[in-house]
Every structure is written in structure tokens, then in C-alpha cells.
Amino acid sequence: MTKTFPPQRQTQAEALLKHYPHHPEAAMLPMLNLAESEFGLIDDEAELLVAELCRVSQVRVHNAWAFYHMYARQPRGKYHIRVCHNISCSLLGAEHLIDILQEKLGLEGEGTTEDKLFSIERVECLGSCGTAPALLVNEDLYENMTEEKIKNLLEELRLKA
Ligand code: FES
Question: What are the helix (H) ranges across the chain?
Fold first, then answer.
């Protein structure tokens, strides 16, 4: 069964489509963003919903999802932490920071904590090499990270949750 958007998201979806009255397929990526915001991940049913709204095949939506690695296939935590592990960040301690994160969150690798509060993902360059090591928490960029900053950040996020 296809997922559906609740009324508020449906209004947002229709507003998106109005930007591309003759090419609804052009709304596919922002529609995927909308679906991920609503459902927390892009699964087969979310792909089908996006396909129907954008009037394309599910295969096209799936291919777009597969190309852009930032879309979630597995449920993510409320705070999704993307840690850059490219060269600048690695040289400045990203691997150690990932170890700290995993230890603090009780995760062996990438994944989501049992309470669904945090998830970790290794990602490629975040475009913040000059302020490495860098990470994203959802859409917020954190730069010049240290072990101390990571510990404080986790505390802050736990308090906010
Ligand atoms: S290498 Fe990490 S932000 Fe560029």
C-alpha cells in the first residue's frame, strides 16, 4: 500500500509541484526530501508516493535515491550525526572522534541507538576542510571538533531531546 502525506505535507507537496507545472518530475528531489522529513526514511512505499506525485516510474525515483547517498533507507535517530572521514578530517582526528561517538552511544559502527535518539553515518567531504574535523547533526554543521566538543555536544542534544 502506498504511503500518503498528511494534509500539511500534502499542501507542501502541491506547492512544490506548482513550481514545475509542465515538468512535475523536476520536483522529485525536493519531494524525496519532503518524504524523508515526514517518514524518517525513504522506503519502497515512500518511493511510490514520490513517483505518483511527480508522475514518474518508481524506478526513476529509486535511481535518484540510489545516486544521492544522503537519503535514508534505514530509520535514523532524532539526531543524525554525519561525520566526515575524508582526508582533511581524517588527518585531524576524525577516526578518533568516530571511536568516541561509537563508545558514547554504544554503537559498533554506523547505526542507530536503541532509544532512536542518535544515529551515526560516515560521509564524504562536507566542504568544510578548512575547519576539519567537521560533522553534521541533521542540518547543522559543527567544525573544529575535538573529543571534548563531541562529549559536550552529545550532552546538549540529550538535554534538548
Ligand atoms: S575532508 Fe572533511 S570536510 Fe572536507
Answer: 7-18, 28-39, 44-54, 58-67, 87-91, 94-105, 147-160
User: β-pairing, 111-112 with 140-142?
Assistant: unpaired
Task: Give just the sign of the alpha carbon dihedral 144, 88, 90, 122.
Answer: positive
| Domains within the chain, CATH numbers bracketed | 7-67 (no CATH), 79-160 (3.40.30.10)
Given ligand 1 and candidates 81, 89, 92, which is best to mutate, with the most ligand atoms within 8 Å of its CB? 89
First vs last C-alpha separation in the chain = 32
* Residues with a CB atom less than 6 Å from ligand 1: 84, 86-89, 125-129, 132, 134
d(Cα 81, Cα 50) in Å, to the nearest integer?
Answer: 26
pLDDT in tens, 77-133: 999 999 999 999 999 999 999 999 999 999 998 889 999 999 999 999 999 999 999
Distance of CA 143 from the midpoint of ligand 1 (Å): 10
Q: Which of 88, 92, 123 to mutate to test the pocket of ligand 1 (most atoms within 8 A of CB)?
A: 88
Q: Provide the grid cell at 55.
A: 508522475
